[in-house]
Amino acid sequence: MKQLLILTILSFVTITNAQEKTTLSLKDAIKYALENKADAKKAQLQIENSEYQIQEVRSRALPQISANGNMTYNPILQLNALPGDFFGAPGTTLLAPLGQKWTSTAGVSLTQALFDQSVFTGLKAAKTTREFYQINNQLTEEQVIERVANNYYQVYVLRQKLALAESNLKTTTKVRDIVKGQFDNGLAKRIDLDRMTVNLSNINTQKQQITNSLQLQENALKFYMGMPMDTPIEIPQTEFEITGAAFSDSPNVSNRSEYLLLKKQEELLVLQKKSVIAGYYPTLSLSASYNYIGQGPQMPLFAKPSDGVYWSDFSTIGMNLRVPIFSGFGTRAKIRQADVELRTIQEDIKDTQLSLDLDYKNAKTQIENSIITLQNQKENMRLADEILKNINNNYQQGLASLTDLLDAENASTEAQNNYTAAVLDYKLAEIKLIKSKGELRTLLNN
């Protein structure tokens, strides 16, 4: 029994330690996501892969060396018609076999490209591809930051609503107990007690709905962070101070990752067109080889001249020139296709510039409206709270009806929920504004 008790205590301690909450600031949440989210990791892997692509293209400009070997058995040698003059029989033709039953060759060959325009263009394209993936990684990180920040603030708002529901539950429970006491003493009607009970039940239901929504939203936040679902998290209140967002009359669109990515795609398409045009250029390469050949009536391996097998070496050095003359207009068609793709991406760039300008204008308008709404809701919340306190005092002194008290409580709850929703709208608008200025990474510095 003692051992069982000890094991139970140890298990409880282990579970308690495992359930310790992780306090997350927005900065911490973003850093965690950039280190653990699959999207961010895959973008990093693409950068790594681009280095290997550069190495692959660079290899085409380096010497290509290979070893080769073969062994051939000729069960029936080809007969060749030879003039009999060589064998002392003029005027006749003799059929004589040439070669040996066994032939074995081993050697080394080298090929070096001296001029190939497609190789030079390919090297430039590979380096540009690396830059493309670096920008894509930056864009991916910004998308991760935006999703984490949005979900982070939504979790906060739901926690605020849950805290408000719990506070209302305590307050309503106290009022219900007062009414129940009055009812027991014959000072209140049954309908008043029933109304308080229904109100309390509604608040309990609302609290449960908020709890469920909060759990779902926390799960979404953990997913976008790449965090295990069973990790408890805590969000500090200091994260949500309302500060005026900085405006800019003309944000630099060229700093946006979306724009930079399209410009880099344009560079790649220009190089792709040049690579196709390179098909019109001649190519020049150097080739060399050195080989050993063994011939005889038996397998040459490990055989000697005494066995009738003879080995000799030979080598070649050559220059290979290829001049394209006519390709059935295939190269021209490829060039025109590349040109259409290039013009298409240029139209995308123009459209993206307009879209990014629109994003900024809309974000600026939205946050201006959010600030006004936030100020109004804050004042409404203050007034509703003041009215509730006055009516509550009047009710306890018998100067206000239960209906007035319930209406004041509902108005106060609605005002607080509206303020909390206004905080969320402001924060989401703030993220859009920061994104429209290309400054999402500044959230890592807050």
Automatic annotation (TrEMBL):
Signal peptide: none annotated. The keyword Membrane applies. InterPro entries: OMP_efflux (IPR003423), TolC-like (IPR051906). Pfam families: OEP. One of its GO terms (cellular component) is efflux pump complex. It is found in: Cell outer membrane. Residues 360-394 form a coiled coil. Keywords: Cell outer membrane, Coiled coil, Membrane, Transmembrane, Transmembrane beta strand, Transport. GO terms for molecular function: efflux transmembrane transporter activity; porin activity. Belongs to the outer membrane factor (OMF) (TC 1.B.17) family. This is Transporter. It comes from Flavobacterium flevense.
